[in-house]
Amino acid sequence: MLAFVLWNLLDKVVDCTQNECITIESVDLGGSVMIRVRNAGIYFYRSCANCFRQVQHAAEKIGATISIDYDSAETCTTVALTLQRAA
């Protein structure tokens, strides 16, 4: 299920990108891990917001969350997948 979520997240980012930079990073949040994918494309936010329902449902099944944020000042969209660490 995790592979499905990550594949769809990254596939959508690459599919919606034309000559823009994509940044992928992992952040340790103590009890959880966040994987952030940032796209500098202008139209990526609209595309993400409409297409991630199935991926969000799959993420919830594994105890993860997906958030999508658009920063108009930097003209970039960040999609973050947050996973709880196994005990």
Number of strands: 4
Given the helix and strand composition, which structural class is it?
Answer: alpha+beta
Average pLDDT figure: 81
Q: Calculate the terminal CA-CA distance, rounded to whole Å.
A: 19 Å
Strand content: 35-45%
Please summarize the sheet with the most strands: 4 strands, antiparallel
Tell me roughly what share of residues is in helical segments. 25-40%
User: What's the total helix number?
Assistant: 3
Report on the architecture of this protein:
With 87 residues, the chain is an alpha+beta fold. It is 36% helix and 36% strand. It contains three helices and four strands; from the N terminus they run αββααββ. It has helices at residues 2-15, 44-51, 53-61, and strands at 22-28, 32-39, 65-71, 76-84. A four-stranded antiparallel β-sheet has the order 1-2-4-3, with helices on one face. Helix 1 runs antiparallel to helix 3.
